[in-house]
């Protein structure tokens, strides 16, 4: 879906983003084709392309001739011209990546999230990792457009604050965005992990793909990132996509919200592992509810199911049915064309979910006779949160919106 430009001098920045967006999506358009696709005049396109060439953001990639007439010079993005840093703060894992403007991960670091009592200690670790990845990458700071942070919700997007995520002990209104900006000197944006994952999907995994999709993020908790009409849906404060209190088992355990059988108390990793322990499927030998220990227990449960343990298999099947019910609510509410699944748990539950969820979901979907719904795992693996965090910056800088543009316009 090409965006249309406006032939007025006052919106040069916007038009520049329109042209850049088209070059990025089309892989090898000429100036004439850019003018056709954007509705901008040949002169306007030519001026913008010259500025982008001077800034080193695009390059001439060769000539194509189509029958008679002058051969046309095609243009493409220069991957090494601009980069963004992506930081994913997960309760179990901290991941930092450097992403080039064309979506390649050029540097990466990951470590277990420290069990710090004081959030300041975790912030210090984040800063240390960011500095290490940047110096390892050897990229000149002038080419780094900014840094994105993906954090568990709820967040206060306007103030850049991580509010009080249930799985990050001791975190209470931590001004993470400003702390990282001050330490690194970079422009920083903060978003929810599920939203970042959806942006990664839109930008890197399937650019030009379905304009309406939900990203089911499977981590310490479950959430969805939403893209509707090719725009990321954030809601009023950046907290859209909280599916944790959708009821998936009316007979299920009671939840702090007052309902019974919410997805948060039935098939998030901790309640799933606890249920396995209650039933004697897993030994109840965990020392704590620490996310890394819960994750290890869940991995054991999955391996048991794979090795043919019927009780472990039943538990996972039950969880799959619950997730399908929650996805039915999401897809009926938003009428999406596509559901993408991923996040830290995906490498374990992916095979089960990919096989079992599509037929279950199709039984519950109102629009099943109108259009199909494609369901697949993300191609980006467990780094999707960090890649998405970096994409937040690219999305902000390169998507044509009247308010955007970190790219120099002169
Ligand atoms: Zn609830």
TrEMBL record:
Q: What sequence ranges are listed for the domain HTH marR-type?
A: 16-61
Which SUPFAM superfamilies does UniProt cross-reference here? Actin-like ATPase domain, Winged helix' DNA-binding domain
Under PANTHER family, the record lists: GLUCOKINASE, ROK (REPRESSOR, ORF, KINASE) FAMILY
Note the Gene3D superfamilies from the entry: 3.30.420.40, Winged helix-like DNA-binding domain superfamily/Winged helix DNA-binding domain
Can you tell me which family this protein belongs to? Belongs to the ROK (NagC/XylR) family.
What protein does this entry describe?
ROK family transcriptional regulator
Source species, domain of life: Bacteria
Database matches in InterPro entries = ATPase_NBD (IPR043129), HTH_MarR-typ (IPR000835), ROK (IPR000600), ROK_cs (IPR049874), WH-like_DNA-bd_sf (IPR036388), WH_DNA-bd_sf (IPR036390)
């Amino acid at each position: 879906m090409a965006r249309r430009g406006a032939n007025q001098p006052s919106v040069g920045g916007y038009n520049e983003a329109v042209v850049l967006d088209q070059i990025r999506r089309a892989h090898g358009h000429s100036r004439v084709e850019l003018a056709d696709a954007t509705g901008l005049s040949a002169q306007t396109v030519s001026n913008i392309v010259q500025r982008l060439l001077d800034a080193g953001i695009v390059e001439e990639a060769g000539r194509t001739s189509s029958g008679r007439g002058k051969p046309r010079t095609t243009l493409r993005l220069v991957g090494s011209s601009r980069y963004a840093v992506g930081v994913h703060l997960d309760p179990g894992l901290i991941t930092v990546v450097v992403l080039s403007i064309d979506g390649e991960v050029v540097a990466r670091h990951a470590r277990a999230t420290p069990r710090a009592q004081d959030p300041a200690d975790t912030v210090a670790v984040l800063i240390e990792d960011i500095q290490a990845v940047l110096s390892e990458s050897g990229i000149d700071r002038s080419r780094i457009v900014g840094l994105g942070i993906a954090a568990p919700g709820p967040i206060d997007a306007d103030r850049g604050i991580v509010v009080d995520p249930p799985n990050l002990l001791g975190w209470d209104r931590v001004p993470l965005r400003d702390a990282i900006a001050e330490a690194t000197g970079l422009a920083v944006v903060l978003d929810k992990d599920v939203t970042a994952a959806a942006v990664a999907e839109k930008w890197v995994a399937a650019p030009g793909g379905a304009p309406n999709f939900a990203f089911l993020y499977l981590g310490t908790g479950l959430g969805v990132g939403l893209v509707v009409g090719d725009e990321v849906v954030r809601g009023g404060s950046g907290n859209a996509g909280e599916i944790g209190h959708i009821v998936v088992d009316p007979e299920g355990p009671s939840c702090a919200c007052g309902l019974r059988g919410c997805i948060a108390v039935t098939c998030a990793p901790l309640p799933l592992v606890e249920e396995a322990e209650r039933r004697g499927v897993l030994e109840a030998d965990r020392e704590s509810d620490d996310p890394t220990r819960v994750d290890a227990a869940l991995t054991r449960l999955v391996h048991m199911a794979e090795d043919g343990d019927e009780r472990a298999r039943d538990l996972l099947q039950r969880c799959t049915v619950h997730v399908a019910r929650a996805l039915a609510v999401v897809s009926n509410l938003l009428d999406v064309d596509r559901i993408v699944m991923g996040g830290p748990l995906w490498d374990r539950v992916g095979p089960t979910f990919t096989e079992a969820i599509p037929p279950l979901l199709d039984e519950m979907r109102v629009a099943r006779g109108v259009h199909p719904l494609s369901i697949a795992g993300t191609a980006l693996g467990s780094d999707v949160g960090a890649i998405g965090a970096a994409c937040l910056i690219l999305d902000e800088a390169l998507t044509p919106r009247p308010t955007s543009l970190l790219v120099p316009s002169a």
